Amino acid sequence: MVQLLVIILISVAVGDLKEGVSSIQGDDQRVHQRPLYLNEVVFIIQSQRNSFHAKRAEERRADLIRQAVHLKQNPPVVLLLHSLSDNEGDWSILPILPFFSASFGKNSSWVVFLEEETNVKVAKLLQTLVRFDSWKEWFLGKPLHDEESTIIHHYAFADNPSVFKYPDFAAAWALSIPLINRLAKKVKDEPLKSDFTIDLKHEIALYIWEEGKGPRLTAVPELCTEPESSPTAYLCATTLNPYLPACGDPVKKEDIFVAVKTCKKFHEERVPVVKKTWERHVALLEYYSDYADPSIPTIDLGVPNTERGHCGKTFAILERFVSDAVPHTNWLLIVDDDTLISLPRLQALLRCYSPIEPVCLGERYGYGLGQGGYSYITGGGGMVFSRAAVTRLLGSGCKCYSNDAPDDMVLGMCLNALGLPVTHSPLFHQARPEDYSKDFLTHQVPISFHKHWNIDPVAVFHKWLVDDTGAATSERPHRDTRVEL
Asked: What keywords is this UniProt entry annotated with (predicted)?
């Protein structure tokens, strides 16, 4: 029965792929009229400066070069995004488009972007790209869409959110050189105006679309996020490694100190949710409030509560972490009282990082990246710091300009001034599950979500952040499961 089901699934997948290919070849006579060679393709690995991620990106580059040798073709250009310049905004892609145009705008056909966990079958990718006339403007990828308008996309397309498609970066995405060249000129002629970079894949798609003047994303069935072990993976030009990598035994829970930011008005509403869900997985935890409540217990740090920002409270937590008031640990996790988080999964992820490096880990946002700007870890999804990072931060003398300044953004400015990288993980989430595309969450083992607005937070925790085996696993399937930031 199981074998029959697998055969049926493969047959359906093959049929869907053939149908997709047929529609692609039928529209606009897209079939390429000449061979496409590997040295016409520029690969951009969306890499990061942290040593773990840089190593993974180098391994991905080496694999692409090995495949070129196997195919007996001249190797492609493979660039690591984090190493192209000292501009902090490079990870947001748009500021560096003029460099791509100037460097490859005459002798290349495609720029393909991929993440460090994206496996590429080079021969299959060439067979896929050759269907498209590279002299035209093309924006190719695996499409995602919103089922409801969401704050992380600024409630775009509120009447029909599903009408707008944006690429799943994990499946790789590609721009033809004519589109690269035009966008590069646009970037040079019109400085990027967006203040915040929140969900890069959606914002890039909006920039390319230009309110209908530019191309929409074209769906390419061969760009996949299935694991390599999937029975239908042979149909794919790209597959995906688990986002929760296996780096060895998880770090001990006794080596993570957890700080929960709360205030008196939420002691009865939010703190009980923490106690019902993830608190039991923590060895060392303190609740920091504007009121010392021994029943929880909470600690009053002497910083008055503020309606927004909480910078004073966060810096007081950093000072306490390096003092003798708390046990000495390598890692500090700071969360809000309405953050839902899986500590076992965090323990597994942290094994990939060295605590003697200044690691600052979470969901990365950007501010003013088109004009220099800086990156920061958005606080609601959880901010993780190595002891080395906290020591560097406090030693720099960086401080809040007011108690109600936005703590995550002030920390981002401090890190930028110190030249310390913000390390991004897509497994941390500033919003609720309902605020993300179902297809995006399907290939994740999420570590956190944020906000209790219009949801049952306990149910969300058990649905998304608890493993059936009681431990983190990259094989657990997810179902679909919405938030003010």
From this structure: Glycosyltransferase, Membrane, Signal, Signal-anchor, Transferase, Transmembrane, Transmembrane helix
> Is residue 449 a contact partner of residue 345, using CB atoms and an 8 Å limit?
no
Give phi and psi for 289, each to the nearest 5.
Answer: -140, 180
Backbone angles phi, psi at 112, to 5 degrees: -110, 125
Q: What is the pLDDT of residues 15-26, one digit of tens each?
A: 444 444 444 444
User: Concatenated DSSP letters for 420-439?
Assistant: PPPEE-TT--SS-GGGS-HH
User: Hey, what's the torsion of the CAs at 449, 452, 456, 458, to 10 degrees?
Assistant: 60
Could you give the angle at the alpha carbon of 51 between the alpha carbons of 252 and 230, nearest 5°?
75
DSSP E strands, 290-352:
298-300, 331-336, 339-341
Angle subtended at Cα 236 by Cα 235 and Cα 239, rounded to the nearest 5 degrees: 140
* Encoded tokens for 123: 């021969």
What span, in angstroms and rounded, lies between the C-alpha atoms of 140 and 446?
26
Report which of 182, 144, 138 is spatially closest to residue 165, judged by C-alpha positions: 144
Give the pLDDT score at 479: 33
**What band does 468 get if pLDDT is binned at 50, 70 and 90?**
low
269 Cβ neighbours under 8 A, 6+ residues apart: none
pLDDT tops 60 at residue 3: no
Mean pLDDT of 386-401: 96
Both tokens of 248, joined, read: 């060895």
Q: Considering only CA atoms, which of 416, 417, 321, 330 is closest in space to residue 377? A: 416
**Residue 273 token pair:** 């949710």
Paired tokens of 473? 């696993």
Separation between Cα atoms, residue 482 and residue 485, nearest integer Å:
11
Token pair recorded at residue 467:
């493993």
Element (H, E) at 42: strand 41-45
Q: Is 295 exposed, middle or buried (0-12, 13-18, 19+ CB in 10 A)?
A: exposed
Per-residue pLDDT, averaged over 335-357, amounts to: 97
Domains identified in the chain and CATH numbers: 11-240 (3.90.550), 253-464 (3.90.550.50)
The Cα–Cα gap between 41 and 379 comes to: 38
Distance in angstroms (rounded) separating the CA atoms of residues 68 and 38: 7
- Is the distance from CB of 98 to CB of 187 less than 8 angstroms? yes
- Could you give the percent of the chain with pLDDT greater than 90? 83
Q: Which residues, in sequence order, are CB contacts of 51 under 8 Å at separation 6+?
A: 354, 357
